[in-house]
Amino acid sequence: MIGVIFGPPGSGKGTQAARLESERHLKHLSTGEILRAEVSRGTLVGRQVKQIMAAGDLVPDGVIVDIVRQRLPEAEQGAGVLLDGFPRTVAQAEVLDEMLKAEGHSLTFVLALTVPEQELLDRILRRASVEGRPDDTREAISERMHEYRKLTAAVLDYYRKRGVRIEEVDGTGTPDQVFGRIHSQLRL
Ligand code: ADP
């Protein structure tokens, strides 16, 4: 089982994916977390992407594709994989299709979390005061939203056209409520 958890910044992808990992044993592959770890370790990749991420822009497709290509085969050894933060462009989605096809696999579902824009902003600003992520400033948040609308929203249309199972789940309310909806809609 290979799923994508999809949604705008602040929609709760990371929170729900972590929960699906601990309770449903789906391996959580978060490109955002991987990149943040590269930045904090000061690796070559980390040094390349630090400024881009802090500004809220998308990291080049090539960098992301290399990261996923390196980690996907091992993640696929378990019960299933949940991709979080990838694919974020149609070009990334096309590469993912090729990667999976080469192994005789295909995407099982896309779980799309929907949250109204004002609530997204409130959530990220609240998180900013707790976690202090460098891209949780007003400017970077607005750039991330812009990138989402400009490049990432099209990924959902890409999957819709290909007939991939898309489950849109209401992402408002507490993490428990959202998890309950995921459970009942996806039967996960
Ligand atoms: P959020 O969804 O809250 O914006 P993420 O942790 O998923 O946060 O991503 C943080 C940042 O990491 C993005 O703004 C972008 O700079 C970079 N990033 C993560 N995944 C990708 C990707 N698939 N393609 C390009 N950039 C990415």
Structure overview:
This protein has 188 residues and is α/β, with parallel strands linked by helices. Helices cover 60% and strands 13% of the residues. Strands 2-3-1-4-5 form a five-stranded parallel sheet, with helices on both faces. α2 packs across α3 and α4 runs parallel beside α5. The longest helix is centred in the C-terminal third of the chain and has 24 residues. The radius of gyration is 16 Å and the shape is globular. It starts with a strand and ends with a helix. The protein binds adenosine-5'-diphosphate. The site of adenosine-5'-diphosphate (ADP) has 17 residues, from α2 and α3.
Write the layout of secondary structure elements.
Blueprint lengths: L1 E5 L6 H12 L2 E4 H11 L2 H11 L6 H15 L5 E4 L5 H13 L6 E6 L2 H15 L6 H24 L4 E5 L4 H12 L2
Parallel strand pairs: 1-3, 1-4, 2-3, 4-5
Helix pairs in contact: 2-3, 4-5
The chain binds adenosine-5'-diphosphate.
